[in-house]
Design brief:
The chain has 346 residues and is an alpha/beta fold. It is built from ten helices and 13 strands. The strands form two sheets. An eight-stranded mixed sheet has the order 7-8-9-6-10-11-12-13, covered by helices on one side. A five-stranded parallel sheet has the order 2-1-3-4-5, with helices on both faces. α1 crosses α10, α4 packs parallel to α5 and α6 packs across α9. The two termini are 28 Å apart.
Length: 346
């Protein structure tokens, strides 16, 4: 069964909208049929035409789209929200109230108050809400999660996670670069800069892989670039349920890094390490033994993937895994993989 997808945001020139569309198509589970791709009517119509969306299902207003689609016998099964952060809550609220499932890019909202309201609405309506924490879709990340849950390294003692980039090491937003402009504007990005853009991924990875909830944080957020209004570097101490400790470093001003998302986890009987830029490999070191380099699909790993070992499986495939999981969730298949999805409550 092919599910029908709508999209809000992601029009011409947008990066993340294109990523969502490619991911949704990869496994043949979704077809994009409707969209409010821009708040500018002309750009919305042109973007829809580029993507083959019928003119009567191209909208310039997301609230109108929610009402129209829920009234159609062939209405969408879910909406992908890929707008700047400040619109996530408004868009999600409109579609939750219409009873349409949500696939929302992170962060869920721009403020904590919005997040609490949205989580309450999602619980009240029982409409599926999926937050696309992309990196949880990598097979070897899920393999690490499985190993920890099965006791391969014993009780977790310490988690080190970092996500480093260098693209904001200069005053990029002053050049008019679209991604930099909205990500450094508190009116569009919300209260967090780097911490909202990539720090959320780092901390999510720490909790996802270990299965531990966060108990407390101590954060030092800094805007190193002169005149920048939001943080571009975040150093955070973490305390987890059960006594485990950790550290998270998120930075967009670290020269020589691009998408350096990594974790290292110390357990009482062993350790695990993973690097997003070499995603098919997982380092496993039982205490007192030689380090084992586990390769996706090598016969030792148990987490399934799409392609034979040796053919790299990367970012788009990880994103597509979330869309496949979301399809399972919405179709009610009840597969175990759907429990790996981030919800509004998460």
């Amino acid at each position: 069964m092919t599910l029908k997808l709508g999209m809000v945001g992601g029009g011409q020139g947008a990066f993340i909208g294109g990523v969502h569309r490619m991911a949704a198509r990869l496994d043949g589970r979704w077809e994009l049929v409707a969209g409010a791709l821009s708040s500018n009517p002309a750009r919305a119509a042109a973007s829809a035409a580029d993507l083959g969306i019928a003119p009567d299902r191209s909208y310039s207003d997301f609230a109108q789209m929610a009402l129209a689609e829920v009234s159609r016998p062939d209405g969408i099964d879910a909406v992908a929200i890929v707008t700047p952060n400040h619109l996530h809550a408004k868009v999600a609220t409109a579609f939750l109230r219409a009873g349409i499932a949500i696939i929302c890019d992170k962060p869920m909202t721009a403020t904590l108050a919005e997040a609490e309201e949205l989580a309450a609405l999602a619980a009240e309506t029982s409409v599926p809400f999926v937050l696309t924490q992309t990196y949880t879709g990598y097979p070897m990340v899920r393999e690490a999660r499985r190993m920890i849950a099965e006791g391969a390294i014993g009780a977790v003692r310490h988690v080190q996670v970092e996500y480093l980039q260098d693209w904001l090491a200069g005053p990029v937003e002053q050049s008019g670069q679209k991604q930099a402009v909205w990500r450094t504007d508190p009116h569009m990005s919300g209260e967090g800069g780097c911490i909202a853009d990539i720090g959320t991924h780092a901390v999510n990875l720490a909790t996802f892989v270990t299965g531990l909830g966060l108990q407390a944080v101590l954060a030092d957020l800094t805007a190193f670039e002169p005149g920048r209004r939001l943080d571009d570097n975040a150093a955070v101490l973490l305390r987890f349920d059960g006594g485990a400790k950790g550290m998270s470093w998120a930075s967009q001003i670290t020269p020589g890094t691009k998408n350096a998302l990594r974790f290292r986890i110390a357990g009482e009987r062993g350790g695990l390490a993973w690097d997003q830029e070499n995603p098919d490999l997982l380092e496993f070191t039982p205490l007192g033994e030689t380090t084992r380099l586990m390769r996706r699909g090598d016969g030792l790993t148990q987490t399934p993937s799409r392609i034979p070992s040796g053919h790299p499986e990367g970012y788009l495939e990880a994103f597509a895994t979330l869309y496949a999981d979301a399809a399972d969730l919405i179709e009610g298949n009840g597969l175990a993989s759907t429990r790996a999805l981030a919800t509004a409550e998460d």
